[in-house]
Write a structure and sequence with these properties.
heterodimer; A: 390 residues; alpha+beta; Uridine Diphospho-n-acetylenolpyruvylglucosamine Reductase, domain 3; Alpha-Beta Plaits; four-stranded antiparallel β-sheet; 13 helices; 18 strands; B: 497 residues; Uridine Diphospho-n-acetylenolpyruvylglucosamine Reductase, domain 2; eight-stranded antiparallel β-sheet; five-stranded antiparallel β-sheet; 18 helices; 19% strand
Chain lengths: 390, 497
């Protein structure tokens, strides 16, 4: 397969113009950690890691401008050195998809709309992408958004570009909002809750003044009892007061106990990497209203699905080897949608990775994609949602 | 003022009676307003310098009517300007002489609240504050709080991506909206997002928020609601110089503190506010900072000490910490009354809204003072210091010949200065008609064309709110042109819309 590694915007413009003229498809790629998601495609790879390095970092302004192919780990190390963080907690999908760790790039996690367990309170990549420089499918260089934290000048193109999976434009430079890193992190947990009770406990906690930043639920696994996790972060006196308050707040559902730091960190990593579902051949990521999570589990667990909850139940990770249509129907019934993250080749190449949209929305999305990429240079067939896909 | 709106279409004006008639068939009774005297109240929004009565006003009551109105206007090539409460400060709801003004005021019901999912589903004409009122009994609130929150509607907030003094910590509208029902100019009813986080595909909702009524008409909104912080405390600090106040702001953030609100006022604004509300603001300082912390009492008590310490280190000459809610609100009273207070010291004022990297504040204020001398007009500054969003209030007298034009030129120079410093034209008020012609200061033609093609994907005939945001209206066919290689468009089999 042909691969390109442009290192200047001019080279990228030329590459896209040529592909457009010749009818070649281009797949924009960072470290390739999420490449196994979606169907096989016949496209030339554009390795964006030639665009690497920090352009500008101004910690007091809470703004970081970085080239898209910069390794995520480098960006995280840099902001940590200033006691700051990318608050959307982007993470490396390598462990989830059978790839080596450490390959993810900042452009890749933004393009995939990645967010960690703090999504509920801290937002996703969309909420932290302030601006970008890019080359569109028209082989034109342009910018969107700005480089300050508050901006409503013109359309909010960064929102459209985050989670667009490289289907609109080739981003070369990103401006991200960064935030101070919490000084203290504590995790409390309730043991042994069923999924309905766990969701209820998480809802009470999220609706309380304890300012829980993240909450997740791991069902019983490998001899360990079910665990409902509550993460509380901030300045030390505040964390102490909120941790003291939480057991009373969730008391009707169970006894919340503080977890040792190491143990808690391991559990949050397990949630992030969906470790308990590692043996599931087919893995779904389901976004839905939190109260829908337990009902979805009621429907699919009897058919053999294994699962865990993040985002207070608003994100269900589901391992299920049964019919994909059952998962999509269950997600839709609860007002959500299901993304196919990992599956055997037969499923991956026949079931669209993203939940199909209503026809009117799908048509509008296609028009928006054509607005940035009229010739379909970035339409590689990965998504199985083009009219000629079947 | 010098603003040019698109030339009214004489053919459309000639058909006015037919258009009114057709709208009456869709919205019977008093929902169609066509008498000249009754159109007057709609002739401007919060930016009163610009006035234009609409051709006709229609006030639909349900989504079926909205869809039918838009479909009819689309078929007939009639322009539509959507309007919420009409509080826009950038002329976003300024009517068109040959356009239908689509008022959403009758969409005023709260439809559903789920505390377990922490969402409220409301119609777009519900006011920002009414959402909080609907959920506060259960200890919740809706976080974005634009200063007009008592009057502005959530539909308008979506159009403008409204902020407020608390948005550094809690985000703008876009960070607090989960879903909308949107009617396209073709009358199609779409659902973008829902009651869950993140959409399945492209984040179309993300681009609809802040699109200033150019992409569609929102008929239902799902917002996130948050538990009300347990306590809030504020500190009021006076500084001898703007530099020292700015340094204090930077050090508060460097200390890892994201305050709920952090507001700065300059000397003219302090004096105007104190003269108006008499809350004891120090008058011998060049900059006044209000820092509000919210959250658990233990956190507020701890952080207020931290902020006070940082302020002292940075040369604060006066410092008061609120001991109860009355005192906290008194600190805010002057800031919240800053606009009307400035209104008392000059017959008219013009409110600007640029954002700058905070570190440039002293230089921006210095150069603004020079511009003030050059134009012979006073200026008072209030500043959302945490996020760099500056609101210079230019003082002028509309009855003095040439004053309006000078104020406008002064304002434009301030916004050019913001962009020069690495900032943007508008932090929260929107582009509207006001900053439309300055867009090329910040964006190249290629940048603007890429934005406008998104408009074309939603509204190819450019019928929704034309004349706003974009300085020049290119026909979509013209924008869609591709560089053709070898005489043929690549991929003839790909659908093009």
């Amino acid at each position: 397969m042909v691969a390109h590694k442009p290192s200047s915007v001019d080279q990228l413009v030329e590459l896209i113009a040529t592909a457009s003229a010749e009818g070649t498809k281009l797949e924009l790629r960072g470290g390739g950690s999420k490449a196994p998601i979606g169907a096989d495609r016949e496209a030339q790879i554009v390795d964006m890691r030639g665009f690497s390095g920090v352009v500008d970092y101004d910690p007091p302004e809470l703004v970081l401008t970085v080239r898209a192919g910069t390794p995520l780990a480098d960006v995280q190390k840099l902001v940590e050195s200033q006691d700051q963080m990318l608050a959307f907690e982007p993470f490396d999908h390598g462990p989830l998809l059978g790839k080596p760790t450490g390959q993810a790039t900042i452009g890749g996690v933004v393009a995939a709309g990645v967010a960690g367990s703090g999504r509920l309170t801290a937002g996703s990549a969309r909420d932290h992408l302030l601006g970008f420089t890019a080359v569109s499918g028209r082989a034109e260089r342009f910018v969107g958004g700005g480089k300050v934290v508050k901006n409503v000048t013109g359309y909010d193109l960064p929102k459209l570009v985050a989670a667009s999976w490289g289907r609109l434009i080739a981003v070369t430079e990103l401006t991200l909002k960064v935030l101070p890193r919490p000084r203290v992190t504590s995790t409390m947990a309730i043991e042994g809750l069923g999924h309905h009770q766990a969701q209820a406990a998480m809802a009470v906690a999220m609706g309380s003044a304890a300012e829980v930043g993240a909450t997740a639920h791991l069902p019983a696994f490998d001899g360990r009892p079910a665990l409902t996790l509550f993460r509380i972060q901030g300045f030390s006196p505040s964390v102490a007061a909120r941790c003291a308050a939480l057991p009373g707040i969730v008391g009707a559902h169970g006894r919340a106990m503080a977890l040792p730091e190491d143990e808690a960190a391991a559990h949050w990593i397990a949630v992030r990497d969906v470790a308990p579902l590692a043996s599931a051949a087919t893995l779904w990521r389901i976004n839905l209203p939190p109260t829908g999570g337990p009902r979805l589990v009621d429907r699919l667990a009897p058919l053999g699905a294994c699962w865990l909850f993040d985002w207070a139940g608003g994100l269900v990770w589901l391992g299920f080897d049964g019919a994909p249509a059952l998962v999509r129907l269950a997600a839709e019934t609860e007002g959500g949608h299901a993304m196919l993250m990992r599956s055997p080749d037969g499923i991956r190449n026949s079931v669209p990775m993203q939940h199909p949209r209503a026809p009117g929305v799908a048509a509008l999305e296609a028009r928006v994609r054509r607005a940035f990429d009229p010739a379909g240079v970035f339409e590689t067939g990965r998504f199985l949602d083009m009219p000629d896909a079947h | 003022m010098s603003l040019k709106m698109p030339e009214p279409d004489a053919a459309v004006l000639a058909r006015r009676d037919d258009i009114v008639e057709a709208l009456r068939r869709i919205v019977p009774g008093e929902g169609v307003i066509s008498e000249e005297a009754e159109l007057r109240p709609f002739e401007s929004d919060g930016l009163t310098a610009y006035r234009q009565p609409p051709m006709v006003v229609v006030l639909p009551e349900n989504v079926t009517q909205v869809s039918a109105i838009l479909r009819w206007c689309h078929e007939q090539g009639v322009k539509v300007v959507p309007r919420g409460a009409g509080t826009s400060l950038s002329g976003g709801a300024l009517p068109l002489a040959d356009g239908v003004l689509l008022g959403m005021a009758k969409f005023n019901r709260v439809l559903d609240i789920s505390y377990d999912d922490r969402i409220a589903v409301v119609q777009p004409g519900v006011t920002n504050l009414a959402i909080t009122k609907a959920v506060e009994g259960a200890g919740f609130y809706y976080a974005p709080d634009p200063s007009s929150q008592i009057a502005c509607t959530i539909g308008g907030n979506i159009a403008e991506n409204s902020g407020g003094v608390h948005c550094l910590k809690y985000g703008l509208t876009t960070n607090n909206v989960l879903g909308v029902e949107l009617v396209t100019i073709e009358g199609e009813v779409l659902r973008l997002g829902g009651r869950h986080l993140d959409p399945a595909g492209l984040d179309l909702l993300g681009v609809v928020v802040g699109s200033e009524g150019l992409l569609g008409v929102v008929t239902e909104v799902t917002v996130r609601i948050l538990p009300k912080p347990e306590t809030a405390r504020a500190v009021l600090v006076g500084f001898p110089t703007v530099e020292s106040a700015g340094q204090c702001v930077a050090e508060v953030i460097a200390a890892g503190i994201i305050p709920a609100g952090m507001e700065m006022m300059d000397r003219p604004a302090i004096h105007a506010a104190e003269a108006f509300v008499k809350v004891g603001y120090p008058l011998d300082v060049d900059a006044l900072l209000i820092v509000e912390l919210d959250g658990p009492a233990a956190e507020c008590d701890y952080l207020i000490e931290e902020v006070a310490r940082i302020a002292s280190v940075n040369g604060a000459v006066s410092l008061r910490v609120s001991n109860d809610d009355d005192e906290r609100l008194a600190f805010w009273a002057g800031r919240k009354a800053a606009f009307p207070a400035v209104g008392r010291i000059a017959p008219d004022y013009y409110c600007m809204d640029g954002t700058i990297p905070r570190r440039h504040l002293p230089e921006v204020l210095r150069r603004m003072a020079l511009l003030s001398e050059q134009y012979g007009l006073g200026v008072a500054n209030v500043f959302h210091a945490g996020d760099g969003n500056l609101h210079p209030l230019i003082l002028y007298d509309a009855h003095k010949p040439g004053d309006i034009e000078r104020a406008e030129d002064f304002g434009n120079d301030i916004l050019r200065l913001c962009v020069e410093m690495g900032g943007v034209l508008t932090g929260e008020h929107g582009v509207g008609v006001e900053k439309r012609d300055l867009m090329p200061v910040m964006f190249s033609q290629a940048d603007l064309d890429h934005q406008q093609r998104v408009k074309c994907a939603f509204d190819p005939q450019l019928l929704l709110n034309p004349g706003k945001v974009f300085p020049t209206l290119h026909r979509c066919a013209e924008l869609g042109r591709m560089h053709v290689h070898g005489g043929a468009l690549p991929f003839p089999d790909l659908p093009r819309f």
